[in-house]
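Email to the structure team, subject: DUF932 domain-containing protein model.

Hi all, the expression group asked for a predicted structure before they design truncation constructs. Nothing fancy, just the tokens so they can compare against earlier work. One-line instruction: predict DUF932 domain-containing protein, return tokens.
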Amino acid sequence: VRTINDVDTERKLEVLLQDVKERSDYKQDFLTSTNNLQFRANRSAEAGFHDRPMIIAEANGGIPTQKLLVNDVCLDQITTDAGLSTKDGRRLSNEYPREYEKLINAIWDKEPKNKLLRTYENHTEYNQARAWLSDKFKVFDHETMVESIYQPLVESDADWEITSGAVTDMRMYMQFKSRRSVAEPAVGDLMALGLNVSNSETGHGSVNISQMIFTLVCLNGMQTGNSLNKVRRPHLGRRNENDGMLAILKADTIEAQNQALRYEIRDVMTHMSDKKTFEEAIERMSTAHGRTIESPANEAVERLGQVLNLTKNETKSVLDGLINTLQQPGYAGSVGVSQATLVNAVTAVQHTVVADEKNNWQKLGGKVLELPRTQWEYIARAA
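Reply from the structure team: attached below.
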């Protein structure tokens, strides 16, 4: 009988679950109208002001006054909700804090709207505001996600093993590879079926469960747009009823909203070991191994960067990834650079970026595999 220890041989999942649990213990969510709140910008240069932006919610209905230090994620959401770009908001907050404070308070007072304010209790005078969301936001948190996939993960005939996991201020990520669904699209290039699980408590992505592919020698993960099974459910539900006054969003309300999604996730997990879609993706990789470029490798990478809309630094990272790829089994000693080589060059960048950017590079790798003919020819036939 398989247990969670079979999935988590290196205790990566255990560490992640402990992080999720510790964060869960400090969560508190409020529903309120913006005209019941005051915003204070970062005015650390002035006596008596804290070195972080702050939201103050006056005592109401038995709830004591809340002084909430605003983290960067929440500040960016406050800014965009006010109709400003995050770039302009950060500049105003840092360089013109008094003017920024007056602007936000004026908008909150003259254009009131009900918001879901997600916080962490620090058990000090100042708690932390971590997300500024619509009152339609459906709370489906990381611990609920973990509970929903836990049993199907252990019981799956895919024989899953965790490869990585992280919890950031914006998202939770977990990725697993199958020990059983393994294939070789080219000699030496062993690949395995993978499972990608992600969620956001702060409005930065849907509940997501999807198949992916791993190159085993380097654990480059790739997420394709068309080839593999996936399910995405946005955090959007019915408006949370509130009269505009400060109120705590109750745990039983959250649980009632989440029950149906819990069952759906358990059902979806049973299809994530499906080999048919994995075999189709492997066939595409096999074809990609046979498509070689006629142009110099550096020129092909430059054009690939244009197609993928990468910055100069990102394109350089892909070139570094290409150099690494050409030294690994399945690619070392091959004649020329292939489409499959470029797929791995792109996905290799995931090992050099922060957790919140890792998925983007995995998806870009899938995009390279699924390039339309005209774009591939533009890259492969560079003058």
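The longest helix spans residues 251-269. The mean pLDDT is 89. Ping us if the truncation boundaries need rechecking.
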